[in-house]
Amino acid sequence: MGSDDWTDAFEISLGGSYRLMGCLISGADAARTARTAETDTIRVHIPEGRYLVQSLFIETFQGDQFMLERLVRI
After folding, report:
1. I need a surface site. Which of 13, 25, 39, 72 has the fewest CB within 10 A?
2. What does each C-alpha distance from 16 to 2, 44, 62 come to in angstroms?
3. CB atoms < 10 A from the CB of 53, how many?
4. Residue 56 burial class via C-beta count within 10 angstroms: exposed 0-12, middle 13-18, buried 19 and up
5. DSSP secondary structure, the chain, as one string
């Protein structure tokens, strides 16, 4: 997403296969949901390396709020 509003969050070393899920739930419910909803996830392969995690906060005209995260290889 083209934006100048991405914020650097932290750096992390990754490599391998990971399971991603969209979170339309509270953080407290995420662990329980991850264990019971494998069909609601997708598996991605991330090449081994060091990454910068960046976050972008979006608020729509209707008042909905979203937090996007992206990985930038460093």
Report:
1. 39
2. 27, 8, 38
3. 15
4. middle
5. ---S--EEEEEEEEEEEEEEE---S-HHHHHHHHHH-GGGEEEEEEEEEEEEEEEEEEE-TTS-EEEEEEEEE-
Query: What is the average pLDDT across 31-43?
Result: 65
pLDDT band at 63 (very low <50, low <70, confident <90, very high): confident
- pTM across the whole model: 0.68
Confidence of residue 23 (pLDDT cuts 50, 70, 90): low
Q: Is the dihedral of CA 1, 23, 34, 9 positive or negative?
A: positive
